[in-house]
Design a protein that fits this description.
The protein has 551 residues and is mostly helical. The protein has one domain: Cytochrome C Oxidase, Chain A (Up-down Bundle). It has 15 helices and two strands. Strands 1-2 form a two-stranded antiparallel sheet. A hairpin with a 5-residue loop joins strand 1 and strand 2. The longest helix has 36 residues. The protein is globular and about 65 Å long. It starts with 24 loop residues before the first helix and ends with a strand. The structure holds copper (II) ion. Copper (II) ion (CU) binds next to helix 8. The site of copper (II) ion has 4 residues, from helix 8.
Length: 551
């Protein structure tokens, strides 16, 4: 991809534009997409730290049978908040709101998103939603203890602070809808001349598919949670069986959003991996169009499988058969991506720098998550493992191993461009391996004991599960050590790291590697021109002749 890049001397970067850009006000009221991306990054990481702390405490409690550090009520509240924070305040905003906001306009050659002020509003809603979730901990009545799924009838009966938690999820939904709206419009309206659909970077395709789910599916959970609030306040009898309501209806409405929501979480991470693999293999990506369309296919098929979360509620055999079949089908477009990533690496000149390490970590962990998702689609197996810790292991492999590692891969890939600072590559690798080993020690035992019958969300357990819990808890300590090494490395780089204005440190081809480091306020001082495909790498063919590889 060639474009007339902006001269990288004597310009003002978005970090300190026209001298007034330093005060807090110039950040929290900024409509610049890059600054809004950083606002999301900072707030998201603070919430992540809270979520990790809750995870650490849960594991500590489970290190031995019986009471360790907390009582059962506190344990229920902590796993509820851990779920709400990690899903709505880390994994869902992680890639679209942070890296989508920062890089989407640059990747399509635009100065900003279509609606910059709406974009700022989405961050404010994110902040307010997050604070509501945290405040619910301290209000009289105690934090919500329902689990992040707010299942009926318990969520309309419990006396804990479900209302602020529900309201938090409702407000955060709007933040997500506004981000989706902005991205769909930006991709349709602000692409530079020459950037046709099949010249768009694959991260942009992933944001596009995700944005449609954000816009179309999120309102459904918004209305559903609002109905729970009204049911608690006025006892309408929509969901509560004691009032003539239908608790299974609640589950359908909840999962009609929450299953597609797992694709809001994972598709952008897949988009980041599609950006990193060709750069570190220095090869044109294998099967560009298949990868682009598989993002759309996942979004479409992913909207038709929600009831695979409900195989034990007693629906008809036909319905179970259909949802089981659709669940198998939705695995195909994900498998296409994994196949194409591995094919791109094949015979590539691989540079094992930290972004690629995290991308490989993603592929390994996501594949375990994906396969264990596949077997859950089989009705007989599902009956056996529903609501066990096998399920907890599965979604941590796809959500943390997948999206979490996708976020860390994006951070290691784009950090130099975002901040104009270099981080220590060796320390980054230590952080990766510590995190990777801790991750598998923490979550893999949950598969084994779940298969053996260990229920999820239980405060206590039978002695035969002790060894698995012990290993898992030690794993959580190693994982947290990995997080400390990784974030410590970034913070040191920000405060004391070597400055860099290197425009293209990894040898990328997409537009962000054509603008100065860190980018100027308006990204481009002249509209770039797009003449070729996004990942155009010169490769030696079998006769060792240099050839341009076609997409
Ligand atoms: Cu699902």
């Amino acid at each position: 991809m060639t474009s007339k890049s902006v001269s990288s001397n004597n310009y003002e970067s978005y970090l300190e534009y026209n001298g007034k850009g330093r005060g807090l006000k110039s950040w929290i009221f900024s409509t610049d997409h890059k600054r809004i991306g950083l606002l999301y990054l900072i707030t998201m990481l603070i919430f992540f730290a809270v979520g990790v702390t809750f995870g650490f405490l849960m594991r500590l409690e489970l290190i031995a049978p019986g009471k360790t550090i907390m009582d059962p009520q506190t344990y229920n509240a902590i796993f509820t908040l851990h779920g709400i924070i990690m899903i709505f305040l880390f994994i869902i905003p992680g890639l679209p709101a942070v890296f989508g906001n920062f890089f989407l306009p640059i990747l399509v050659g635009a100065k900003d998103v279509s609606f910059p002020r709406l974009n700022l509003l989405s961050w404010w809603l994110f902040l307010i939603g997050g604070l509501l979730a945290i405040i619910s901990v301290f209000l009289p009545g105690g934090p919500a203890d329902t689990g992040w799924t707010f299942y009926i009838p318990y969520s309309v009966r419990t006396s804990t602070n479900v209302f602020p938690a529900l309201l938090a999820a409702f407000v955060l939904g709007f933040s997500s809808i506004l981000t989706g709206l902005n991205f769909v419009t930006t991709i349709h309206r602000l692409r530079v001349p020459g950037m046709t659909w099949f010249k768009m970077p694959l991260f942009v395709w992933s944001l596009y598919s995700t944005a449609w789910i954000q816009v179309l599916a999120t309102p459904i959970v918004g209305i559903t949670l609002l109905l729970v609030i009204l049911e608690r306040a006025f006892g309408f009898g929509i969901f509560d069986p004691a009032l003539g309501g239908d608790p299974v209806l609640y589950q359908h409405l909840f999962w009609i959003y929450s299953h597609p929501a797992v694709y809001i979480m994972i598709i952008p991470a897949m988009g980041v991996i599609s950006e990193i693999i060709p750069v570190f293999a220095q090869r044109t990506i294998f099967g560009y169009k298949f990868i682009a369309f598989s993002s759309i296919a996942i979004a479409l098929f992913g909207s038709l499988v929600w009831a695979h979360h409900m195989f034990t509620v007693g629906m008809s055999g036909t319905a179970m058969f259909v949802f089981s079949l659709l669940t198998f089908l939705v695995a195909i477009p994900s498998a296409i991506k994994v196949f194409n990533w591995v094919s791109t690496l094949y015979k590539g000149s691989i540079a094992t720098d930290p972004p690629l390490l995290y991308a490989l970590g993603f592929i390994f962990l996501f594949s375990i998550g994906g396969f264990t998702g596949l077997i859950q689609g089989a009705l007989s197996v599902n009956m056996h493992i529903h609501d066990t810790s096998f399920i907890v292991a599965h979604f941590h492999y796809v959500m943390f191993g997948g999206t979490g590692f996708g976020i860390f891969a994006a951070l290691h890939f784009w950090f130099p461009k975002m901040f104009g600072k270099k981080y220590n590559l060796q320390k980054a690798k230590y952080g990766f391996w510590t995190l990777f080993i801790g991750f598998n020690l923490l979550y893999f035992p949950l598969f084994v004991m779940g298969w053996l019958g260990m229920p999820r969300r239980y405060y206590d357990y039978l002695p035969e599960y002790h060894i698995y819990h012990l290993v898992s808890t030690i794993g959580s300590w190693i994982l947290i050590l990995g997080l400390i090494i990784m974030f410590g490395n970034f913070i040191y780089a920000l405060l004391k790291g070597e400055k860099t204005s290197e425009v293209n440190p990894w040898g990328g081809e997409t537009l962000e590697w054509h603008v100065p480091t860190p980018p100027p306020l308006e990204n481009f001082d002249e509209i770039p021109t797009i003449e070729t495909d996004p990942y155009q790498y010169v490769q030696n063919n079998s006769d060792n002749v240099l050839v341009k590889e076609a997409n």
